[in-house]
Write a structure and sequence with these properties.
single chain; 315 residues; mainly alpha; 11 helices; 74% helix; globular
């Protein structure tokens, strides 16, 4: 095995270990929190009105934050390259910061457990850490639907996509992707700064175009490996994937709805899947099994791609 490939795989293994054993970093140490603070600071300079002024500011902000995130990561890794062990630890630190699989499971559990205990208010409050949807009027069925939708969509945003960019562009690429995703989450919305968020939102759509489709494929494979109804999931994917406002998020959500045989509804926005079975905490557990299998397959694909790239360069 080539040295570069061995180092890359050690970084991946360590990052996965950090995620499993440590979960999310404390806010003070989390690079994504640093990105968020930089965005918030820059937003103080944002023009309060003017379509073209906001559009230009948003474009410059997106370019600056993404370049800063990827550039700082690259420079720190270059400094650490003098000491191989330090380079692996630092690389794993930044790579793990770009994804969050264990925290996704924890966030889902924080909603499901109160529901099982009959505490609807606590479940509603816990949903706020999983998605941006207003949970104040959601009943148990709507809360469970939101959890399953979030598992599907965040599998892409918080795991598959960062590893895609790591595989092709290295750790700096994963950091740059996380900056794009954070920009979209913070300012890519409608309201007084709608035009300011246009460029970040479109960048996020573009960055997730391929990972979202890969995520849908990996979920279909996970369904096949667990004996799920892949034919139904494929049918739901083709029928419902384009129903969501996002050009990407509906794809993994539609596949998961099809595999579980449930209907996922965001009131007045979309309905995915068919209500073959009721939404229950057991369906959330089945969804997590499919998500975790898809994530493991992605790790295998990353390993294989790293070895192939190394062999190609060596050849």
């Amino acid at each position: 095995m080539h040295g570069d490939a061995a180092s890359a795989l050690l970084v991946l293994a360590a990052a996965l270990g950090f995620d499993w054993w440590l979960g999310e970093y404390p806010p003070l140490l989390h690079p994504v929190v640093w990105i968020g603070k930089a965005i918030a600071a820059a937003m103080r300079l944002a023009p309060p009105q003017g379509r073209w002024q906001q559009l230009l500011f948003g474009a410059l902000l997106a370019l600056g934050i993404c370049t800063l995130s990827a550039g700082i990561t690259f420079l720190i890794l270059r400094w650490a390259a003098e000491w191989p062990i330090v380079e692996i630890i630092v690389g794993a630190f930044f790579l793990k910061a770009s994804f969050a699989l264990r925290e996704l499971k924890r966030a889902a559990d924080r909603v499901v457990r109160p529901l099982q205990g009959g505490d609807l208010a606590q479940a509603r409050e816990a949903l706020r850490s999983l998605c941006s949807r207003d949970p104040s009027c959601l009943d148990e069925t709507a809360l469970l639907a939101a959890v399953i939708e979030s598992l599907a969509e965040n599998l892409c945003d918080s795991f598959i996509a960062p590893l895609c960019y790591w595989t092709v562009f290295g750790i700096a690429g994963a950091s740059g992707y996380r900056a794009v995703n954070t920009l979209d989450a913070m300012i890519g919305y409608r309201g007084p700064f709608e035009f300011l968020g246009k460029v970040p939102a479109r960048l996020d759509d573009g960055a997730n175009w391929l990972p979202a489709r890969l995520t849908a494929g990996l979920l279909l494979l996970a369904g096949c490996l667990t004996g799920g109804n892949v034919v139904a999931a494929w049918r739901i994917l083709r029928r419902d994937a384009a129903k969501t406002p996002s050009p990407n998020g509906g794809r993994p959500m539609a596949v998961l709805a099809g595999l579980l045989g449930v209907e996922l509804e965001k009131k007045d926005v979309y309905v995915l899947g068919d209500p073959q079975y009721p939404l229950t905490p057991q369906k959330v557990r089945q969804a997590w099994l499919l998500v975790s299998i898809a994530a493991m397959v992605m790790v295998v694909l990353c390993i294989l791609a790293t070895l192939v790239f190394a062999a190609t360069r060596g050849g």
